[in-house]
Amino acid sequence: MSEPGDVASFDELVSSLSLVSRWKAHVVATRCSLRAMLLFFDELKGDTDRLATFLLGTFRCSAISYAFHFLERPNVSRAATLASDFLIEKIKFPNRINSVTASVFCAEAVDEAKSTYLSLESASDCFGGLAIEEPFWRSVSLDLRRMGTLEDSDILTAPLWPKSDDADWDPVLRRFLLQLKSLPPQWNLVEEWFLEVQKGSNSILDRAKRVDFYRVLVSSDREFWERDPHQVIREIGERWHSSADEVSKQAPAPSRTNSTATTADFFISYSASDEAEAREIAGFLEEAGYSTIVQFKDFPVGSNFVIEMQEALERGARAIALLSPDYVASDYCRAEWAAIYAMDPIGKTRKLVSFLLKPTELNRLARQIVYKSLFGLRGDERRQAVLEAIRHQPASATPGEIAQRLAETASPDVISTPDEKLDAVPNATFDRAVYDVDLPDLPTVLRSTVSALLAALPANAPPVIGAALEEYRAHLDERGTKPIVGLLVDYAETAQLEFNSTDFELWGAGLSHLFKRYFSYHAKFLGHYPLSQERERTFAEAEVNEDLASGRDFVGPVTQVAEAIDRLAEIGGVTPGYERVVKAQARMAVDIDGLPPNAGENAGKGNNVTPKRRFVLMQIGFWERSLAALAGIATLAATPQGRAAVVTLQRAIEAFLKFLV
User: Fold this and answer.
1) How far is CA 225 from CA 68, 217, 218, in A?
2) pTM for the complete prediction?
3) What is the pLDDT of residue 577?
């Protein structure tokens, strides 16, 4: 070995692991097993039955190896032996599959399992001749060096697979997670488990909550594992989710005997007029292996819908709300919505998944939840949207990864014009409209409503609300049904916050009603731009420390960018539209900084995207896109003004990224 910890063969790995503690050894072993699972998943993807058996077996080996964190060592060792024997017997993939089984047993290299794994045929050549041989051993060497820097007391809570230190495997991991989505949804457990151990056991749940899950893996007999893999993984997934839900573990036994008494995966809340859509979505879920509780098939006449739903949710079900004009107008649906919302007001536990069936004038409560739009989708595209939405789990991301997502969904987007100028435009993907009969009329309705509001504003109204409404109206005047959606949302949310934080007496009943109609029309208008909700999802998952994002630290970078763009404008480097956007951003930064601070435990968290949080995230995306567009105009970037703008934009991005939690 070239240096301590460097390995290039299985024998060298065994030797190295004998020099470290068993805790460090089994972490290295589990990561070896996971790499094998990622790689060979690719090779079997055309054979569905064999793939399911393989994925179940490799997941079983990896998870049992990880169970050393939780359970008694002898029990885990016996379970690992059974798991590897089963894998070799069922897959008939002996040489390469030894890479999985042998790596699991590396955790026990110093005693009882040594004779077992060393007897595996061709174990030392398990990666020989494969294109990934060198990256594999390079990554294992990195694992060993990293383990050397940790104390044993830190091993149990350290991330199993930190994102930052395994660049060789990042593309493999991304491809693996993408391919998992082609399997029935119960296999999403593999992704959930991987993401949890990637972060470190204590960063998600107290480790004790997972003991029951790992004990099932270790204690289940051969008969349990030899059943249909899809059914086995589903049952394991149920135990996984119940181990994370203290409420469901502590809830008293239900007193009812009707069909909702059993735990289901989803409760579907819908208006009677949308029953056809509810049946369709319930069908999508049940075909995919989920169980549902739905009024049309589960609730007897005369039952209390809200009580039935609450009992289902308390037993672990998640809720699906089908948003439509009839839904938000229904007293019953509003009661159901309020009960669901109260259980998870900021969307942290993903207790509620909302689908927008058609553009709707959403009420204030509904507007606070990020929804998945099904408007304009048909057939398999619609089914895929439903299944992807219910499987979505927010993943932790580095500031750089968040900046990249913000740039992809940026609104305003930035392009270079044919005459080599920066221009602010709608995002070609995320600001694209789906036509509906009322779309052409909505800009006119909104402009007239905003004009009425501006005319009726009292003289002592907060200045920011008038400025936001003016910008909103001017933007609709200019762009109509092809707006930069992010700007409209920014203006409307700022007006909404100021309206909510000001005493009712200032507005009066008539003006208050007009404001509420404006916000409702705005929500309906947004419903015609379904992909804009992907940007809202990113905003809901990227939290901002608003105490840091204030004063000079908040306003200064925006002002400095505006000054740099002024100098670019002097040499004809930007369009008037781009210049207007940047100047408006500078004004809005000052106005937003003067807004009342957030109050309450959940203020600004989860789905509660405040104007300041929205502004910070929008600016990062806009500046990233500006940098990319400027870099694409070599003649402009080479000017003194262009070079100064590049530096200013980079510094502004760095400053705002520091606000991310």
Assistant:
1) 20, 10, 11
2) 0.58
3) 93
Q: Find how far residue 107's CA is from the centre of its chain.
A: 33
- Model pLDDT, residue 280: 92
Peptide bond into 184 cis (omega under 30): no
Q: Nearest 5 degrees, angle CA 38-CA 54-CA 131?
A: 40
Domains of the chain, by residue range, sit at 10-244, 259-391, 394-432+531-661, 435-526
Q: pLDDT tens, 212-268?
A: 677 778 888 888 888 888 888 888 888 787 765 542 333 333 333 344 434 678 888
Neighbours of 508 (CB within 10 A): 12
CA 41 – CA 266 distance, rounded (Å): 30
Residue whose C-alpha is closest to residue 441's, from 485, 471, 481? 481
Structure-token pair, residue 514: 């007009």
The residue with greater pLDDT, 71 or 94, is: 71
590-605 exposure pattern, b = at least 16 Cβ within 10 A, e = fewer: ebbbebeebeeeeebb
Closest CA to 642 of 453, 421, 440, 460: 421
Fold classification of 259-391 is Rossmann fold (3.40.50)
**CA atoms 399, 401, 405, 407: torsion sign:** positive
**How is 446-494 classified by DSSP, letter by letter?**
HHHHHHHHHHH--TTS-HHHHHHHHHHHHHHHHHTTS--HHHHHHHHHH
Exposure letters 352-379 (e unless 16+ CB within 10 A, then b): bbbbbbbbbbbbeebbbbbbbbbbebee
